[in-house]
C-alpha cells in the first residue's frame, strides 16, 4: 500500500500459453453462480474470517503505540464485522466477490483506518528474542545428523514445527495467549506421514542429486517460524553453495515477519570471522534479504516489488512457505523453475478441501522439465 515503485509480476511465473495464474487455491465461485448471491464456499470463508475478529481486537487493545486503543479496537471489530455482513448480503460489495486475498486486505484496511499499523509488534519482538536464544541448540541438533538426506528431512520437519506460531488463526491465538507452544513440543507432535500432500522423498532426491544455484524463499511468520524453522533450513542450502534470497513482507500483517525485522534478525545470526560472514560456521555471504512488496498474510505473485523481480529472475528454485502463501494461495501455481510449497494446514476448511487432517503437513514439490 506504500510502495515507492509500481509492483510487477513475479518473473518466474509460468508463461505457458494454456496457463493463467490464479493465486487463490480454493474456488470460491464458478461462472454459473449468481453474481449477487453468495456461494456456500464464500459463506464458509466469511465466517472463518469473522472468527478471527475477537483475537485480533484483543491484540489491538494492547497496542500502546495507539491512543485510545480499546475504543479504536472496538471500532475496528464493528467495521470489519459490518463489511463481512455486507459481503454476505451481496458478494459484489467492497470489490468482491470475496476470496482469501480480498478478505485479508479488507481486514488490514480496517485496522489501518482505525489507526493500527502493527498490532503484533510486541509479540513478534518477544518471540524473535526467545527463538534466537534457542537457535544454537536447534543448529547443534541438526548438525549432529551425519546423513545428508536425514538432515534435510529433519530440517523440513523443523519448518513445520516453527510454522505453528500463527496468531491469525483463532484457535492458535488462544493457545499462545494461555502460555504458548514450544518448538520442541511442536516438532514431536507433528502428524505422522504420509501427509496430505507428501513429496518429501522427491524433494530430497532432487536436492541430493544436485544443489540449486539460487533459491528464493517467501517466508511467513516471526518467531520460531523464521528463526528456528526457515533459518536452519536456509543454512543447509548455504552449506551446499546455494545463494538464498529470503523474501519478506513490506508492511505488517498479523504476526508475519517484515523486511526490516528480518534484516535485523539476519544481522544478529551472522558473525564476521577474518573478514568472512558466517552463520554458525557456514559461509553466509550468499544469504540475502529482500522486500517482497507484499502486505498480506497471503500473496498474489502478479504483484511483487521490482527489487524482488530483479534479484529472483535467475533463481532455479522457488519456495513458498506457510498456509497463506503456499496453501490458501499458490498451491497450484506453476513456475519456470523448480518449486516447493510447504506449510501446515491450520483451518478445518482447508483440511476438508485437501482431504486431509487439521494440522496436516503439505510438501508439494514440482521439478521443472529442463
Automatic annotation (TrEMBL):
Keywords, ordered alphabetically: Hydrolase, Manganese, Metal-binding, Nickel
GO cellular component terms given for this protein: cytosol; nucleus
Alphabetical list of Gene3D superfamilies matching this protein: AF1104-like, Uncharacterised protein PF01937, DUF89, domain 2, Uncharacterised protein PF01937, DUF89, domain 3
GO molecular function, one term: metal ion binding
Domain Damage-control phosphatase ARMT1-like metal-binding: 49-361
Coiled-coil zones: none
Protein name, per record: Damage-control phosphatase ARMT1-like metal-binding domain-containing protein
GO biological process terms, semicolon-separated: coenzyme A biosynthetic process
Pfam families, sorted: ARMT1-like_dom
Cofactor(s) required for function per UniProt: Ni(2+); Mn(2+)
InterPro entries linked to this entry: ARMT-1-like_metal-bd_sf (IPR036075), ARMT1-like_metal-bd (IPR002791), At2g17340 (IPR016949), At2g17340_3_helix_bundle (IPR035073), Type_II_PanK (IPR004567)
Domain of life: Eukaryota
Amino acid at each position: 500500500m506504500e510502495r515507492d515503485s509500481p509492483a510487477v509480476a513475479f518473473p518466474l511465473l509460468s508463461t505457458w500459453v494454456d496457463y493463467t495464474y490464479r493465486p487463490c487455491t480454493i474456488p470460491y465461485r464458478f461462472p454459473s453462480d449468481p453474481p449477487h448471491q453468495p456461494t456456500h464456499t464464500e459463506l464458509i470463508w466469511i465466517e472463518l474470517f469473522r472468527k478471527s475478529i475477537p483475537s485480533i481486537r484483543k491484540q489491538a487493545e494492547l497496542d500502546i503505540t495507539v491512543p485510545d486503543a480499546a475504543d479504536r479496537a472496538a471500532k475496528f471489530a464493528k467495521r470489519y464485522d459490518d463489511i463481512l455482513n455486507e459481503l454476505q448480503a451481496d458478494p459484489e460489495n467492497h470489490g468482491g466477490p470475496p476470496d482469501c486475498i480480498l478478505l485479508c486486505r479488507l481486514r488490514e484496511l480496517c485496522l489501518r483506518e482505525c489507526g493500527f499499523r502493527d498490532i503484533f509488534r510486541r509479540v513478534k519482538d518477544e518471540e524473535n528474542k526467545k527463538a534466537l536464544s534457542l537457535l544454537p541448540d536447534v543448529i547443534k541438533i541438526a548438525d549432529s545428523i551425519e546423513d545428508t538426506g536425514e538432515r534435510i528431512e529433519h530440517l523440513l520437519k523443523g519448518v513445520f514445527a516453527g510454522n505453528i506460531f500463527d496468531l491469525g488463526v483463532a484457535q492458535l491465538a488462544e493457545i499462545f495467549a494461555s502460555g504458548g507452544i514450544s518448538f520442541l513440543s511442536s516438532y514431536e507432535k507433528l502428524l505422522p506421514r504420509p501427509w496430505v500432500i507428501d513429496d518429501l522423498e522427491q524433494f530430497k532426491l532432487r536436492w541430493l542429486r544436485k544443489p540449486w544455484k539460487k533459491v528464493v524463499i517467501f517466508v511467513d511468520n516471526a518467531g520460531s517460524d523464521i528463526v528456528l524453522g526457515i533459518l536452519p533450513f536456509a543454512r543447509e542450502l548455504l552449506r551446499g553453495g546455494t545463494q538464498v534470497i529470503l523474501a519478506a513482507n513490506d508492511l505488517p500483517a498479523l504476526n508475519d515477519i517484515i523486511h526490516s525485522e528480518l534484516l535485523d534478525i539476519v544481522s544478529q545470526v551472522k558473525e564476521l570471522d577474518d573478514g568472512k560472514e558466517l552463520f554458525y560456521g557456514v559461509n553466509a555471504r550468499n544469504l540475502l534479504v529482500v522486500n517482497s512488496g507484499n502486505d498480506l498474510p497471503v500473496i498474489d505473485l502478479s504483484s511483487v516489488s521490482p527489487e524482488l523481480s530483479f534479484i529472483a529472475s535467475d533463481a532455479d528454485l522457488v519456495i513458498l512457505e506457510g498456509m497463506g502463501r503456499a496453501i490458501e494461495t499458490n498451491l497450484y501455481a506453476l513456475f519456470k523453475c523448480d518449486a516447493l510449497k510447504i506449510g501446515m494446514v491450520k483451518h478445518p476448511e482447508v483440511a476438508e478441501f485437501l482431504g486431509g487432517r487439521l494440522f496436516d503437513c503439505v510438501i508439494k514439490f514440482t521439478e521443472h522439465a529442463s
